[in-house]
Amino acid sequence: MPRERGEKVVATNRRARHEYTIEKTYEAGLVLTGTEVKSLRQGRANISDGYAYINGGEAFLDAVHIPEYSQGHWTNHASKRIRKLLLDSRRLRLFGKEFQSRRAQWLRMLAEGEPLAPDFLAAIGVDQRHVRDLVRLPIVSAGEEASVADLVDLMLEHSIKRVLILREGKLVGVVSRADVLRTVLEHVESLLEPI
């Protein structure tokens, strides 16, 4: 029997194409074992949960389900395992730069108070994470009667940009470094006004 020729699509992710806008597509090789190849030839794969990432200058594909080969035995593969993607080093560097650019864009959006983009929420896996995973610095608070100097000392001591303001143990506001600078500049300007 002659070997198959040409290309055959073994799996597509329709849900991703429906829920997201695909800006670019890339072609990459995939390191597979023999039983994975045979299972794929049977047209059995699920890539709906799969995602690619770059780690240590190499690309990997995770959470893709290629079921065990029906006629395999002890040499069968694990159905969900991390698989290496084969990309040239130039393309890997390009992906790294694009990711850093996208990350910087997300951080600017957050810093400027813009609404969160759906691709950002999907990327950080908001449905699988807890707030404690997002908190990087200690939570620092002060009472309403604290002086501006006290707030500045707290910000410097803890290397933070915002201090929570509490009244009787309940949050009533947040003071940022920008708020402190604005108050100080207004005070300085009032001193410089002609009499």
Topology:
Blueprint: H1 14-19, E1 29-30, H2 34-41, E2 51-55, E3 58-62, E4 83-86, H3 89-111, H4 118-124, H5 131-134, E5 141-143, H6 148-158, E6 162-167, E7 170-176, H7 177-192
Parallel strand pairs: 5-6
Antiparallel strand pairs: 1-4, 2-3, 3-4, 6-7
Structure description:
There is one protein chain. The chain is α+β, with helices and mostly antiparallel strands. The protein folds into 3 domains: 14-87, Small protein B (Small Protein B, Chain: A, Beta Barrel); 88-135; 137-192, CBS-domain. The protein has helices at 14-19, 34-41, 89-111, 118-124, 131-134, 148-158, 177-192; strands at 29-30, 51-55, 58-62, 83-86, 141-143, 162-167, 170-176. It has a 4-stranded antiparallel beta sheet with strand order 1-4-3-2, with helices on one face. A 3-stranded mixed beta sheet has the order 5-6-7. Strand 5, helix 6 and strand 6 (162-167) form a beta-alpha-beta unit. The longest helix is centred in the middle third of the chain and has 23 residues, at 89-111. It is elongated. It starts with 13 loop residues before the first helix and ends with a helix. The mean pLDDT is 78.
